[in-house]
Amino acid sequence: MPDSGGETGRARTANWGVAVGAGAYLSWGAFPAFFGLLEFASPVEILAQRILWTLVVVTAALLVAGRIREMAAINARTWRLAAVAGAAIALNWGVYVYGVTSGHVVECALGYFINPLVTVLFGVVIFRERLALPQWVALGLGATAVVVLTVDYGKPPVIALVLACSFATYGLVKKVIRLDPMRSVAAEGVVSAPFALAAAIAFGITGNASFGDGAGHTALMMATGPVTLIPLLLFAFAAGRVPLSTMGILQYLTPALQMAWGVLVGHEAMPASRWAGFGLIWLALAVFTADALRRARRTAETSPAAT
Q: In this predicted model, what pLDDT tens digit does every residue of 114-166 receive, in sequence order?
């Protein structure tokens, strides 16, 4: 007889994983609402404070968990990888904050829509991966969309492209770095903290700092730490319990919500040509996702557990 109790337990774990994963992507999707509150500060200062307070929060979490000594076990190669990851995510955070505070939320959303396609492109260029026909079709549609949006904007969608490329780079490093999520975030914060601290001090010395300028401004800056860390921990919990194909679908919640915010709340312009560009992106993602689901189903059917 099948182990119905075990199957029920696994189903519950998977359901919890999906719920928590959705929570992570919904949290990221709500970022424009939070970071829009920080328009009073320079994007560079926001980035510096975000790096510092994220490090403070993750360090506190490691202390509470009794794991702070594990940081000493990180080897030199891993620290170098953490430095690359820290630089990539700092660039991503900085450009994202600039996009949100300057009224380009829709373009930020575009960056996260095209991120999966950029990741596939990196696989081809860097790892010489071979793609199936549907993946090439998706990349072709994505490239066409970028051309259409370049004509629409009158220039390449730089914010979107930088966000997509920086996050794809971050994702590549995270695939090879041998650290759990909390230690990885902490290591990235440690290598980035000197630069962030120098920037924060420079803003203070020149009298341009928003941190410390009233309790409200200071509290919002400090809140960037937990606001950044909590979705990362939710994602880490879900990633180990939910199939990659499901997580791949859930990830589109984030740019969809961000785009909705930009259009409905920010009232950003969406002419027909821009809708056409986004339509091509969505078509590319539909082809890409359908192919990924087909591959995942075929793998499940041919795996030993399925027989």
A: 998 998 888 888 878 888 898 899 999 999 999 999 999 999 999 999 999 99
Neighbours of 253 (CB within 10 A): 18
pLDDT in tens, 251-294: 899 999 999 999 999 999 999 999 999 999 999 999 988 888 88
Question: What distance separates the 2 farthest-apart alpha carbons in the chain?
Answer: 73
Single-letter amino acid code for the residue at 148: V
- pTM of the full structure: 0.88
3-state SS string for 89-151: HHHHHHHHHHHHHCCCHHHHHHHHHHHHHHHHHHHHHHHCCCCCHHHHHHHHHHHHHHHHHHH
In angstroms, the CA 59 to CA 65 distance is: 10
pLDDT tens-digit map of 3-42: 555 566 566 666 788 888 899 999 999 999 999 999 999 9
Give the span between the Cα atoms of 216 and 65, in whole angstroms: 30
Secondary-structure breakdown of the chain: helix, strand, coil percentages, each rounded to the nearest 5: 85, 0, 15
* 64 phi, psi to nearest 5 deg: -60, -40
Q: What is the dihedral of CA 234, 235, 239, 243, to 10 degrees?
A: 100
Residue 77 sits at the vertex; the CA angle it makes with 71 and 79, to the nearest 5 degrees, is 40
Structure tokens at 202: 């420079």
> CB–CB of 50/229 below 8 Å?
no
Which parts of 130-211 fold into alpha helices (H)?
A: 133-153, 158-176, 181-205
The CA R_g of the chain, rounded to the nearest whole Å, is 21
